[in-house]
Design goal:
Residues 572-581 have a biased composition (Polar residues). By secondary structure, this protein is of the alpha+beta class. The protein has 20 helices and 16 strands. It has helices at 25-37, 41-54, 59-71, 75-85, 91-118, 127-142, 148-163, 167-179, 186-198, 202-213, 221-233, 237-250, 268-283, 287-300, 305-317, 321-334, 339-351, 355-368, 373-384, 504-508; strands at residues 389-400, 409-418, 426-439, 442-457, 460-468, 476-484, 489-497, 513-525, 528-539, 544-558, 562-575, 587-604, 607-622, 626-640, 646-658, 661-675. It has a 16-stranded antiparallel beta barrel with strand order 1-2-3-4-5-6-7-8-9-10-11-12-13-14-15-16. The longest helix is centred in the first third of the chain and has 28 residues, at 91-118. The termini are far apart.
Length: 676
């Protein structure tokens, strides 16, 4: 580029000399426009501005200046010059400049939105983008249908609608562009992919994300993480692992430095990838690994609210709700208005059964962020408490080879209707239960109706109910109390008068039983738990049946779709009277182990199908008859029909010895639960 005061000869033979030896203004302006058209707007701008220093009315130089500024992204300055000088361009060129100015307003609106979100000023975050959308709509009415400016405006509108979370409109507009065979650039396809993902269409989202990634331009972190989430929600965990591994490899801790003497600049994208690795471990049920990763991030950035919230989520997934709450409170101290922090507080309040705080937190969030899927789901779960709910379970069995316990046929079911929860944690319920058995001496059946009230609050639970077969009978009473002392220990106390645990054949002789039970549970985390139960059933014929049992549950394998648990159990029972007309051995002992496996075979958001199987064996001993092995097997299905309704069913087989006789039993089971 010749110096600013260079004579005409410095520009070659194509430029004639003008007044005072300066280059001819028209010739130099023509060179500037050719440079712009060849893809060099910066050079064109410099040449055009030189012309305007000594020929301020040169129309070509003015047009080239405005066009070059627009090409360089200086839309506002170009728009001001265009409005000031109003050069005589063709209408298509005028429309292009209006579209350029609209693009500038979109870019500024996105930046304003991000700035307000960083400062938790959510009420004003969409003002600039909403104004830019109004401008786009006005341009669409001005531009001729099918024009280049019209197509570009419709494409830009996809981006604005996505930023405003108007996902339905994004998809509808994109489909209209496709029907008209309009070429949609990759930056707008990324917005459409986000909309499909938000509308629970992960396969379509993944396809569009792939198109953006494979287009040749380096995709943004948002596109690559969006692709990861689309694969996760499509249940393609192996492909998602490859995407995350590539993200991990391609995202350095520090930004590159042209000058090695300057201090290193942290790469903010690295933090987002590291937090995604924590979530990925949680998705795959590797909760211990997720917690370790979250703790490592917290040690590196102890005041980063996103990191703190990630640690709280990892603690909650392990069942440590009080720890999670303390961690979330720390995030709230740093950023009390932050959206993610407030949601974390609401979810922890839900798990801790702090219902007033849950309501105070989630209802303003749902009003402020109506399109956020996580907030919407938590708010729906809060609203579920204001509805009736129904649950039921039943089984039917046939036995061969003995009738000491189960009879040749047996069955039972229980149906319970719950009222909505009150704000203070109370609700009432009504239930019906039925038990039936066919013994050598005849069939025995018991129907029972019951009503009760219960309260849950702050991880405390008490309930009281009365039940009976007829209004004239002495009613049965049930009282219970349960409490978590911390994240590890829980105890439960239960007493029942006219207890349903009384053997059916004892009830046939008008006997009843009083049950007293105490239970202590220790839970290390989501993978390991132990329970000790002490019980005594005082039957009105003078028999006192006392028992003790212990159970240890250990999860031995877990992944996104599979989970395997090993259960070890010990139990002992003593009856003070063994000469009864129902099964009542003086002493029994049992030591067993059971392997359980769940396979999440299919899932689509709120709908899922799970298969489960369990195999158990035990060494069982009965006084007077010695020891014998016992076997149990079960196979079942669980269908999650909607977010609030599920049904389960299964079949099973067991073989055990009672009073020296081996009894084999086949049974079927059916259950359901849901919100009305």
């Amino acid at each position: 580029m010749p110096p600013a005061e260079a004579p005409a000869s410095a520009y070659g033979e194509d430029v004639r000399p003008g007044p005072s030896g300066r280059p001819n203004a028209d010739d130099l302006a023509g060179i500037a426009e050719r440079q712009r058209q060849q893809g060099h707007p910066a050079i064109a701008l410099q040449l055009a501005q030189r012309v305007l220093t000594y020929a301020p009315d040169n129309r070509q130089a003015l047009q080239t200046t405005i066009s070059s500024l627009s090409n360089l992204g200086a839309y506002r300055r170009a728009e001001r010059l265009r409005e000031r000088y109003r050069p005589a361009w063709p209408q298509a060129t005028q429309d292009r400049f209006r579209a350029d100015a609209a693009t500038a307003r979109i870019r500024n609106g996105v930046q304003e939105q991000a700035r307000h979100e960083r400062r938790q000023r959510y009420g004003a975050r969409n003002a600039a983008l909403t104004a830019s959308l109004d401008g786009l709509n006005a341009n669409l009415e001005r531009f001729p249908p099918g024009s280049d400016a019209g197509h570009r405006t419709r494409v830009d509108r996809l981006v604005v609608l996505r930023q405003l979370n108007r996902f339905e409109a994004v998809v509808a507009d994109y489909q209209a562009l496709q029907r008209e065979s309009v070429d949609v650039p990759v930056y707008a396809k990324a917005a459409v992919a986000d909309a499909h993902l938000a509308r629970r269409q992960p396969e379509q989202a993944a396809r569009l994300y792939r198109e953006v990634i494979e287009s040749g331009a380096r995709p943004s972190l948002a596109v690559r993480t969006g692709y990861y989430y689309a694969l996760i929600e499509s249940e393609e965990y192996a492909a998602a692992a490859e995407v995350l591994a590539q993200l991990d490899a391609d995202t350095p801790i520090w930004r590159s430095r042209p000058n090695p003497k300057t201090p290193p600049v942290p790469n903010w994208e690295r933090s987002e990838v590291d937090r995604l690795r924590v979530l990925d471990a949680t998705y795959r049920r590797h909760d211990g690994e997720a917690l370790e990763r979250a703790r490592a991030l917290y040690r590196q950035a102890p005041r980063n609210t996103d990191v703190i919230n990630g640690l709280s989520t990892a603690q909650r997934s392990r069942g440590w709700y009080e720890q999670a709450q303390s961690t979330a409170e720390l995030a709230a101290a740093y950023a009390p208005r932050d959206q993610a922090t407030r949601l974390n507080i609401a979810e922890n309040a839900q798990d801790l059964e702090n219902f007033p705080r849950w309501q105070r937190t989630i209802e303003p969030l749902a009003s402020q962020f109506p399109t956020d899927s996580a907030i919407r789901r938590n708010h729906l779960e809060w609203q579920d408490r204001q509805h009736f709910s129904l649950e039921g379970e039943g089984s039917f069995g046939r036995s061969r080879g003995g009738s000491a316990v189960n009879g040749s046929r047996d069955g039972e079911y229980r149906l319970r209707l719950n009222s909505p929860w009150r704000e203070d944690g109370y609700r009432a319920y009504i239930e019906q239960s039925w038990r039936w058995g066919d013994y050598d001496g005849g069939a025995e059946r018991r129907d029972r109706w019951g009503v009760g009230v219960e309260r849950r609050w702050l991880r405390r639970h008490w309930w009281a109910g009365v039940s009976g077969e007829n209004a004239s009978d002495e009613p049965g009473v049930e009282l219970g109390w349960s409490q978590w002392l911390d994240d590890r220990w829980q105890y439960q106390l239960l007493t029942q008068f006219q207890s349903p645990e009384t053997p059916l054949r004892a009830e046939r002789s008008d006997r009843d039983g009083r049950l007293y039970q105490a239970q202590v549970t220790w839970r290390q985390n989501e993978s390991r738990q132990a329970t000790l139960t002490l019980g005594a059933l005082d039957i009105s014929d003078g028999n006192l049946r006392s028992d003790i049992s212990a159970e240890l549950t250990q999860r031995v394998q877990a992944s996104a779709h599979h989970r395997t648990r090993l259960l070890g159990s010990l139990s002992a029972e003593h009856n003070s009277q063994s000469e009864t007309d129902y099964y009542s051995p003086e002493d029994t002992r049992s030591a067993g182990v059971t392997l359980e496996h769940d396979w999440l075979t299919w899932r689509r958001y709120d709908h899922a199908f799970t298969q489960n199987v369990s195999l158990g064996t035990a060494s069982e001993w009965e006084r007077g008859h010695g020891s014998a092995p016992g076997y149990d097997a079960r196979y079942g299905h669980v269908w999650q029909l909607t977010r609030t309704w599920s049904v389960n069913y299964g079949v099973g087989w067991g073989s055990h010895e009672y009073e020296g006789e081996r009894e084999a039993r086949w049974f079927g089971q059916l259950g359901f639960e849901g919100v009305l």
